[in-house]
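Aim 2 progress update. The chain analyzed this quarter is reproduced below.
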Amino acid sequence: MNDDDYSATELGSHWFERPASDATAPDRVEGEVLRFGPGVTAAALRRAENSPTAVQIWHGTLPGVPAPRPARSRRPWRYAFAAVVLVAVLVFLAWRQYGPSVAVRDVAVSAPGQRLGCDGTADVVGLVRTDGRPGTLVYRWERSDGTRSGALREKVARGQKEASLHLLWTFRGPGTHQAVARLVITSPGTHSSAATFTYHCG
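Predicted structure tokens:
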């Protein structure tokens, strides 16, 4: 083929296969004009060199446009305060659940103020004051007639600072007896207190 018979051709960018010669040309062609062969002018080359490419648009490297700054990563210290608060709450809950048990502060025993009559029953009350922590009191009652109870237990809830422990002591028959009732706390720690009252029948 001679160079004199060659001429430039213009095509729409989305028309990669030209229809048959007898087909109707489209009313409108979208896209840039592609030029081939010796018909490409120097002005067309300059426009092609200065036009942005898809790669430049995708990477944000258009001429004269500053590249976007990468987002700063969040610094770990921003969460330090929340972490400290969370740890403090967990420590407090663990201390409440598994911390020291109840502690006894004071024990006092009271008996009927008046003389107990025939076949009467005395209600002896032991008042135990605690620090308000939960736990179990282990105690026993000792009577002046030589008898004592076995080990007894009283559970105290959180915030409960007092526990009332009762001893019912019944007397029968004539006579006079000076009675002494003693409350002994064996756990936690060892504490005791006693009260005296009189039984008279005759």
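The CA atoms of residues 134 and 158 lie 4 Å apart. Confidence is low (pLDDT under 50) at residues 6-21, 26-30. These observations will guide the mutagenesis experiments scheduled for the next reporting period.
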